[in-house]
């Protein structure tokens, strides 16, 4: 592996969405091949529409997926290919281990109303999606030398999917290492968690690891519920934990891992640039966190974007990059023996 410009020799990434890490060329190819109308005909035009350069809102960011997902969702060949190309992308970034997450239902195109182009290909089940993604990732591992495991996402607005998500985690636990809860955290009321409690309880009983998007746009109270009710072991983002000093102190004592996505937090409006970013506090307190891309297609980024942002704008050092990658490896959802192998690899690389 060559050193990335950030100089953190080997990197571990724990928070990146497969459907937010697709090559624009692949979207255009399948749009054309499948006769699906897209809002652009060239890579540049497509990135102008779905890419973000300025801060937005979380719902505004989530709306970007609607532009391009129809070209991929429900297509067996496309799903396997985006998984394979994802591993290639991460190899170029100097990543040695990555946990990539996605909603099997969204990739299967589990919409409320059936869509004709999906039926034309034969209905694709979420179960089949998990198999296709695993095949693409395994071929990518073989060809590019990056170790990859997956996390399956429940979606906040679709609690009906969650029981099947946890069953898929159990069925494919060789490749699937955890369950996640993603989607719009600004939804009002109890729907943030209520419909997903049973799935998370089943995950706990079945020994399935757990992470939750919480405290990105939501309050510290959302973080508390993710920890106390869903029994999450890691927090996706978690920035607003800092609004509650007692909660933050408790989570640090419990060695909670924060999956930090700095560039994402700027563009989704989760972080206001006139305030100190939560990751600076995490760094100063020697908290347990990692740096991640989240959705590099929409943010027009690579992992190095996040490293450069923290290095140039927040005073991060090479030693801190090494520390946070070791913490990422320790907080990964790999089995004990594989985790120790990953840590050995990092310790050797870091000297």
Automatic annotation (TrEMBL):
Q: Which cofactor does it need?
A: Zn(2+)
User: Source organism's superkingdom?
Assistant: Eukaryota
Q: Which CDD domains did the record assign?
A: ADA
* Gene Ontology molecular function, alphabetical: 2'-deoxyadenosine deaminase activity; adenosine deaminase activity; zinc ion binding
What this protein catalyses is:
2'-deoxyadenosine + H2O + H(+) = 2'-deoxyinosine + NH4(+); cordycepin + H2O + H(+) = 3'-deoxyinosine + NH4(+); adenosine + H2O + H(+) = inosine + NH4(+)
Q: How does it sit in the membrane?
A: Peripheral membrane protein
- Which InterPro entries does this one have? A/AMP_deam_AS (IPR006650), A_deaminase (IPR028893), A_deaminase_dom (IPR001365), Ado/ade_deaminase (IPR006330), Metal_Hydrolase (IPR032466)
Q: Name one GO biological process term.
A: response to hypoxia
- Kindly report the protein's main subcellular placement as a broad class: other
SUPFAM superfamilies from the entry? Metallo-dependent hydrolases
The yes or no answer to whether the keyword Transport is present is: no
Q: Does the keyword Ligase apply?
A: no
Q: How does it assemble?
A: Interacts with DPP4 (via extracellular domain). Interacts with PLG (via Kringle 4 domain); the interaction stimulates PLG activation when in complex with DPP4.
Which PANTHER family does the annotation name?
Answer: ADENOSINE DEAMINASE
* Listed name of the protein: Adenosine deaminase
Q: Which organism is it from?
A: Loxodonta africana
